[in-house]
Write a structure and sequence with these properties.
single chain; three-stranded mixed beta sheet; Hypothetical protein af1432; flat; Ribosomal Protein S8, Chain: A, domain 1; KH_dom_type_1
Length: about 525
């Protein structure tokens, strides 16, 4: 009984499991069919949407193609119309040219016929002239033969005698003309030369500013001096080492003296001090940085000064290196005279003198501005500044006349151009005018003493005075031992000795004074 129950229970479980499996399969099949239908519906909808989108895209592409076709068609028609109009205009021009060519050919034919007629006429006239010339030659030969019979001379001998007579007369007249011309030139040359020099000097306004060897840097109070000096003087030593000048901090209130012979270094030191004081940070590293920046600014300023100078002077086409050297002239001096101011002054004098003489004023001005360019060459050289300046001018393709004027203005080379003496004269005028240059007191006094001692070395000289800053020498001689004729010779001898033994700018006037006194008493 128990086994049958057990079997029934197992059978019922198997039936239940089978029913469950069948029911699950049925439910799964129903769900799968529903999902499959939903997927098919979605796919159909996607296909429909794709077909609609494709149709829209197709319509858009068709519209775009039509628009592009219409645009290309209009452009083609417009281009074709333009080319058609160009062709029509070219056809008209060809027709006009053809008509003008036909007209010119007709005119050429007419001119050829006229030339043929003219040629025939010329041939006839030439034949007539040839016949007349032959007749004239026969007549001349007959006349020459008759003259030879009468004069007992051949035609060649008569011609030689006539040429000799005319030559002698021409030489006589030429000699007299040359003599009179030389006398007239000798009388007027000195007068004209003085007139040109005086007019040139009068028409030139010159400044009397003198360059110094020191610059003064003003400060607000004396407390800043301590910052500039630094601990144990390290700041001032760093500044002197970086700039190459001497910084003098003394008891002068609210001032520091910058001493040095190079004006560029003094200006760099002055500007560097100004920036350091304004910044307030003063130490060796900062000093080196500020000096380097200031030096770069000065170099830029030098170029700017050179460019401004050549523009003011109306000089064009200078090499950039020469323009930079002209700017450096602003920071150089000669006997206290600023070199740039001196060169500008010489250029103006040269232009004025060249205009008076009818020469090229632009070339003269160019040579005058560049005549001392050798003084600012930054590298060391054993050549005189005139020769060095000439070599620099040749290097930078300056005019040969300008090069010769630069090299010859101190007589180092031979003058080959008319500009050379003009540059030399104008340089002497600018350097020797009153107030232009400054010398050290000791050398100035020594030069005056040497000048007086040179004149006192001649026999018969009692006293001697150098006046007008050494521009004039007045010599008083013994009237009992030196005659008037010897006095004139003495002034010449003194001038020659001064030229040989002394160096001086400009010229020195020697005046010999002979005074004769006769004293008597009436009692």
């Amino acid at each position: 009984m128990s086994n049958s129950l057990y079997f029934i229970v197992i059978l019922s479980d198997i039936i239940a499991i089978g029913v469950g499996i069948f029911a699950g399969k049925y439910i799964f099949q129903r769900s799968f069919d529903a999902k499959e239908k939903e997927a098919q519906d979605r796919a159909a909808e996607i296909l429909r949407n794709a077909e609609v989108a494709a149709e829209n895209i197709k319509k858009d592409r068709i519209l775009e193609a039509k628009e592009k076709y219409l645009r290309l068609k209009s452009e083609f028609e417009e281009d074709a119309n333009k080319k058609r109009s160009i062709l029509q205009s070219n056809e008209q021009k060809l027709k006009q040219r053809e008509q003008s060519l036909n007209q010119s050919m007709e005119q050429t034919k007419r001119k050829e016929s006229e030339l043929d007629n003219l040629k025939n006429n010329l041939n006839q006239q030439l034949e007539t002239a040839t016949k007349r010339r032959e007749e004239a030659e026969k007549s001349l030969q007959q006349q020459v033969a008759q003259l030879e019979k009468i004069a007992n001379l051949t035609a060649e001998q008569a011609r030689e005698q006539l040429v000799d007579a005319l030559k002698a007369e021409a030489e006589t007249r030429a000699g007299s003309y040359i003599k009179s011309a030389m006398e007239e030139a000798r009388l007027t040359a000195t007068k004209e030369a003085k007139k040109i020099v005086i007019e040139t000097i009068q028409r030139t306004a010159a400044e009397h500013a003198i360059e110094n060897c020191v610059s003064v840097f003003n400060i607000e109070n004396d407390d800043i001096k301590g910052k500039i000096i630094g601990r144990e003087g390290r700041n001032i030593r760093a500044l002197e080492a970086a700039t190459g000048v001497e910084i003098i901090v003394d008891d002068t209130p609210e001032a520091i003296v910058i001493s040095g012979f190079d004006p560029v270094r003094r200006e760099i030191a002055r500007l560097s001090l100004h920036r350091l004081v304004q910044d307030g940070r003063i130490h060796p590293a900062r000093i080196e940085e500020v000096v380097a920046k200031t030096r770069k600014n000065i170099e830029d300023e030098i170029v700017e000064i050179g460019e401004r100078t050549v523009i003011d002077m109306g000089i064009h086409g200078l090499h950039p290196e020469l323009v930079k050297m002209i700017g450096r002239m602003r920071f150089r001096s000669s006997y206290g005279q600023n070199l740039l101011q001196h060169s500008r002054e010489v250029a103006k004098l040269c232009a004025t003198m060249a205009a008076e003489l009818g020469l090229n004023t632009k070339l003269a001005k160019r040579a005058g501005l560049l005549h001392d360019i050798g003084k600012v060459w930054p590298e060391e050289s054993d050549l005189p500044h005139a020769i060095l300046g000439m070599e620099l001018a040749k290097k930078y393709k300056e005019n040969p006349e300008v090069c010769n004027a630069i090299g010859a203005h101190h007589d180092e080379i031979e003058m080959t151009s008319i500009l050379s003496p003009i540059i030399q004269v104008c340089d002497a005028i600018s350097g020797s005018r009153p107030g232009a240059r400054r010398e050290m007191m000791e050398s100035y006094i020594q030069r005056l003493r040497d000048l007086e001692n040179l004149a006192l070395s001649f026999d018969g000289v009692e006293k001697c005075y150098a006046i007008q800053a050494g521009r004039e020498l007045r010599v008083i001689i013994d009237a009992d031992n030196v005659s008037d004729e010897k006095a004139g010779l003495l002034s010449f001898d003194i001038s020659q000795k001064i030229e040989k033994e002394m160096q001086y700018p400009g010229q020195i006037k020697i005046t010999v004074i002979r005074e004769m006194r006769s004293v008597a008493y009436a009692r």
